[in-house]
Structure formats: C-alpha cells, structure tokens
Design a protein that fits this description.
The chain starts with a helix and ends with a helix. It folds into 2 domains: 367 residues, Alkaline Phosphatase, subunit A, CATH 3.40.720.10; 79 residues, Arylsulfatase, C-terminal domain. A hairpin with a 5-residue loop joins β13 and β14. It has 486 residues and is of the alpha/beta class. The strands form 3 sheets. The protein has a 10-stranded mixed sheet with strand order 7-6-5-4-8-1-9-10-2-11, with helices on both faces. A 4-stranded antiparallel sheet has the order 13-14-15-16, with helices on one face. It is built from 14 helices and 16 strands. The chain is globular. α5 runs parallel beside α8.
Length: 486
C-alpha cells in the first residue's frame, strides 16, 4: 500500500500546485497584475552563432532553442553598441550612441563606470511610474556606487550583482552589491573559489520573481556569462574536460591585479566556454520554470539577447566556435559580428511562433515596452516600437529610416544601416575625412565586398546621415576636431 499511498500524495501535491497556478492566473485577470510582466535577459558577449538553433555545434542550449521555437526570433536585431556600458546605455535610455550620454567603457576608480546622468528618464523610472516593481540582477556598468547612475538612483527597486563591469571579469569576486550594501564573499578570499557569482545572482533573480508574483514587474537580467574570465563550477566543467584540444590561458590568479578585474588562468578555456553557455541556458530554463510554477508565464513577455558580439579575451576562441556565425568581426567592431545579435521574444498566446526580419536595435526596446504596458516614453528617444511585429501585425509596423552606431575606442568608428546598405568608417579620432566602406547586406552579409567605389552617391548620402546622427559629447569624443578642442 505504501507505493500507492505515495503516488496518491504526489497526485494531490501536483493537483494543488496546478490549482494554485490557475487561481493565481484568474485572480490577476482584470487586476493591476494583468499588466504584462517583462523579463529581459541579456547575455554578455554571446555571439550570433553561439546558440544551438543558430548553428552552434559544440554547445547545447535546449532551453533557448525551445524558447526560440515557441516564440519569435528576430533575424535582424542589433545591440546598442559593440561593448558593454554604451550598449546598456542605449537600452535603458532609448537613445542610440550618437545621442546617448554614455558611449564608452569609461572607468571611474576605484569601482564603477561613468554615470548615466539623472536627466535621463530611464525605462526603469517609466515602468515604476506605471505601477511596476523593477529589478536588475547581474552587471550594471552605468554608474559607480552612490552616483547618479547607481541603479537605485535610476529607477531600479532591487539590484543584486556587480555595479562595476570590470569587477564582473571575476566570477569568484570578493564582493557583490545588494542595493547599497556591499556583500563580502569571505569564501572567495585569497585563492579560494567558494561562491560562483552567477549562481548567487541567479538565486536572487528567482527570489525577485517569487517576491513580486502578485504585482506587475520588470525583471532585467544582465548576466555576466559568457564574458571572460572563462571559468565555471566543477560540476559544469566535468562533462566537457577532454572534449577539445586546449591551449591553456595564463592569467592573474591573485593579488591587486586580480582584485581589479584581471582574468584568472584557465587550463581548459574551450571546455570552460561551453560549460558557461550551457549554465546560462540552464538558468534561463529555471527562470521560465519559476514563471510557470507561479502561473505567470502567460502574462509575461520574455526577451533574450546579447549585449554585443563575441569577445577574444581571457583565452576565448570565437573562431573555433564560429561564435559570430556568418558575420565579420567581433566585440569592438562595428561590422556585423560586433553588433548583430540573436534576439528571442516569447509570450505564450500573444506572440506566434516564427521569425521576423524587421530591423531593430536596443534603443527600440524602451518604446516597445511602453507600447505593451502603457508606460510613458520620452519624446526625444530614437526608438521605434516593434510591438506590431511581435503581435503579428506586421502591416502596422513602422520601420527606421536608418540605424546608427558610433564607438570611440580603437581610433573612433561609425556605422550606419539604411535598408540593405551599410556604411562604416574608421580612424575618426585622427582622420577628419576617412574613407567609407559600403556593403550590401542582402547580398553580402559577411561584409566582404566593399562597393563604395561603385556607389558614390549612396556613400555621400550615408556619410551625411552619419554626421547628422552624431551629437558632440564632452566626455566621449569621436571626431579628431573634438579631441583637438576645435
């Protein structure tokens, strides 16, 4: 009788959980919580080709593959920039890098980045005004602790993770931030590897969903995976050791250099990379499972994307993994490999499975969220809502005249896409009139055939748009004339 009794108890438990989820869903219908929850998951330096459904051969990503198969995959989506801070800046402000206040990874010692100014009305502040609880879990990078760019000063109710993206280089850090409290991780002192930060952050992410299940919430999950350093817990590493021919990476394993963001040594960097991406996939699956358990899934839009293209630091090997897929370039490039990222949008019952070739970028997310939630969107943003494309109303979808990027590092770069045409120019820090490269992305997505000489009028048009899209910034200077103070 004991096995039968156990099965009976299991049935009752499962029935009770199902009843609770159904009761929660019915209770929310017609209430404040009928406003959709938004979960925005941002991978760190994940390339277009790093997922199973985009062609990755060495990494298994079943949860993300399923999320894409049951949702909408945007094949023409772009990050805000080609490195961390400015990419996040465009996301939360709705401004592209020609207008956004943060346009580069400007360091503020001892810990943090150049702060997003208080004058920016962020998507977090907009959603708070609309009755949402807001949370951010992972890597911030938009203002040092206590600054006007601190997450709690930019509309984030609950923050847990790395304030400073440089500190996010280390997966076994000495401390994390819990809102305004520095949480010391004594288990990671010296050479000890006791507490893996992505797991700690993930626990708090799930707790946020639990704590806010009765109210509409915006959950921003800027994961630090799979950015360097390349390291994963032993349990995740074990199954991949010996799979690859490895070139050990020699990093900094202790001392002051490690404490300020040096990468740890790794004997098996390829195995570590695979383990990290598969852990990220597992965590995405657990977020979805939590939403299902609480009866929130049908009222939640889940978005997954990456902040820029694949990196080459810390022993990473994007060429081996074909991380940038069919595209040219890596992180810090404005070629497609640096900014063309995978993006999945999933909302059961609202978003039909399929794909969209609508060209979109990070600065569109603010307007899209406003469209879906009723939250206010400032008039001066550069974004266009892609809610019509999401909801199967492509005939109503407005398109950008063009998409624009600028990047102050590595000599200064600009890129612009108008229709299928993409123009790039380099070395703007020194050359007042550098040559322009021109590519037809429909025929040449890998940007191998420069057509500038054959298309002088198009080059002239796109150059003028580049110049009109750039608003001078006193901190992040792009042109040689700005640097010279002219």
């Amino acid at each position: 009788m004991r096995p039968i009794f156990c099965y009976f108890l299991l049935f009752l438990f499962s029935f009770a959980c199902s009843e609770k989820a159904t009761e929660h869903r019915l209770k929310n219908e017609g209430s404040e919580s009928a406003k959709p929850n938004i979960v925005y998951i941002l991978a760190d330096d994940l390339g277009y080709g790093d997922l199973g459904f985009t062609g990755q051969e060495y990494v298994e990503t079943p949860n993300l593959d399923k999320l894409a198969a049951e949702g909408m995959f945007f094949t023409q989506h772009y990050s805000g920039s080609t490195v961390c801070a400015p990419s996040r800046s465009t996301l939360v402000s709705g401004l592209h890098t020609g207008h956004a206040p943060v346009r580069g990874n400007y360091e503020i010692q001892p810990e943090g980045q150049y702060p997003l100014p208080d004058s920016v009305f962020t998507v977090f502040e907009s959603l708070k005004d609309a009755g949402y609880t807001t949370g951010a879990f992972g890597k911030w990078g938009l203002g040092y602790p206590g600054s006007e760019g601190d997450p709690n000063n930019q509309g984030v109710d609950v923050f847990y993770g790395y304030n400073c993206q440089r500190m996010g280089h280390n997966y076994y850090p000495y401390h994390l931030w819990d809102n305004q409290d520095s949480v010391v991780l004594e288990a990671n002192a010296g050479k000890n590897l006791g507490l893996y930060a992505p797991n700690l952050i993930h626990e708090q992410t799930l707790k946020f969903i639990e704590d806010n299940q009765e109210n509409p919430f915006f959950l921003y999950v800027p994961s630090i995976i799979p950015h360097a350093e390349l390291i994963a817990p032993e349990q995740q590493m074990e199954e991949h050791l010996g799979r690859f021919e490895e070139t050990p990476y020699k990093g900094v394993d202790e001392g002051p250099a490690y404490k300020i963001g040096g990468y740890m040594s790794q004997e098996n960097p390829r195995a570590a990379f695979v383990a990290m991406v598969e852990l990220l996939d597992k965590q995405v699956g657990e977020i979805l499972e939590k939403l299902d358990q609480l009866g929130l899934r049908e009222n939640t839009l889940v978005v997954f994307t990456s902040d820029n293209g694949p990196h080459m630091e810390g022993g990473a090997d994007p060429d081996f993994f074909n991380s940038n897929g069919p595209y040219r370039g890596y992180k810090r490039d404005l070629y497609e490999g640096g900014i063309h990222v995978p993006m999945i949008a999933n909302w059961p019952g609202k978003i039909a499975p399929g794909s969209s070739d609508h060209p979109s970028a990070f600065w569109d997310m603010y307007a899209t969220i406003g469209d879906l939630t009723g939250a206010a969107v400032p008039d001066n943003t550069d974004g266009i809502s892609f809610a019509p494309a999401l909801l199967g109303k492509s005939e109503d979808q407005t398109k950008h005249e063009y998409l624009y990027w600028e990047f102050i590092e590595q000599g200064g770069k600009q890129a612009i896409r108008k229709g299928d045409w993409k123009a790039i120019r380099l070395n703007l820090n020194k050359d007042p009139n550098p040559p322009i490269e021109l590519y037809n992305l429909a025929e040449d997505p890998g940007e191998q055939n420069n057509l500038a000489a054959q298309q002088p009028e198009r080059v002239k048009e796109l150059k003028a748009l580049m110049e009109s899209s750039h608003r001078p910034n006193p901190v992040f200077k792009l042109y040689a004339s700005e640097i010279a103070g002219e």
